[in-house]
Amino acid sequence: MTSRSPRPRSQRQRLECVVTSVVEKRLGALPVAAEFLRRLDVAGIIDGLCPSAPSAHLTHGQVIEALVANRLTSPMPLFRVGDWARTWAVEEVFGIEAGLLNDDRLARALDAIAPKLEQLAGTVGARAITEFDIDVSRLHWDMTSMSVHGAYPLEDQDDAFPVIKHGHPKDRRPGPEAGPGRARSHRRRRDPGPRQGLRRRCGEVSQVVGTMKDLQKLAGEQEFLLVADSKLVSYANVAALLAARTVFIAPVPAAQVKDGFYAALDLEAATVVDWLPDRDAGKDPAQREVYRVLEDVHTLNGPRKRDPVLSVRRILVHSTGNAAGQQAARTKRLTRAAEDLDKVQRGAGGRYYNTAEKIAARIGVITRTRRVASCLRTEIGEDETGRPTLTWHFDQQVLDREAAADGWYALLTALPPSRPTRARS
Fold first, then answer.
1. How many CB atoms lie within 10 A of CB 16?
2. Which superkingdom heads the taxonomic lineage of this protein's source (predicted)?
3. Closest CA to 297 of 406, 419, 410
4. pTM of the full predicted structure?
5. What is the per-residue burial (b if ≥16 Cβ within 10 Å, else e) of 95-106?
């Protein structure tokens, strides 16, 4: 038996691998977006309602899915989407070549779906309700704002579509804007659900009625509850909602119920609500927030004399948590105001407050910044040497009336009355 010695290193076969190029792409949330788009069948719904030409390399549905992914991952101005697709793993996730997402193809897809926007939104919304088991019996209505850039002459815009115009968005950003509404569902599961964007050329308040009709169609035949903020409470909105028998609940604007009305309410006559906030579940019973309610009727007068007066059920709610918070805020304001006023009082006649006019100007600043105009009482005089003096105090009767109104707020609702139950001891 013979043995073979190993070959010298120089005679061994060598395998070389040469890297000629490296391609790096961002993945980010693309797989997540693709999964939700697939579950919502966005491309299938769009292609069913807006079919593309047989010779097209991409369907309209594929293009819109890419645009949705672009908005979610890189919300920049809507151009050069192809450049975004080259740096992101769009081809690997969606199977779309970056070069096909040119501006012309995007414009043709957007033009194709424009006449079908309402139907597309409703169909995708219905699909989301089914796919994610969303409870649409209760919807929370709120407004948002979107700022846009560029020139949008009104004469070049179509009233049938979102109209861009100068406004006053909530985020205080200047420039052209659009104000869509969002209705967020109360969900039974943790799966994400849709937020319905409504496109109407009108103010926040006047959007609500038409929007509710759209949402009722989307929700189908079932009991429907609209939970809104105080912007809902206008004569036109409430009249239309009552006529449509839409059940709603919303806080009454503060300007419509004066503090003096709340201060005159009898808290002892209010009914304790048998409800415990989740945040208080682990607290000692003596430290838990308590809610009490009274009920009366709220009236709304129309803009014209011939408009009938609307009478709507009003729930007057008192929260011990709100009362404690308002009392603490008032104490903080009064304490800071007192510190500022004491400083002026000590300095009256000195270098900085050597005239009555300067003292009065400083008191005006303190009154505004500390919000104590209703209760602050001041008197500017002179001492025996002619130097200005200041005396001040807070009107305790005013403070007592403000404290009596603490914790109260009002809800307007079309919910049918029910017999409240007292909290269990």
1. 4
2. Bacteria
3. 410
4. 0.62
5. ebebebbeeebb
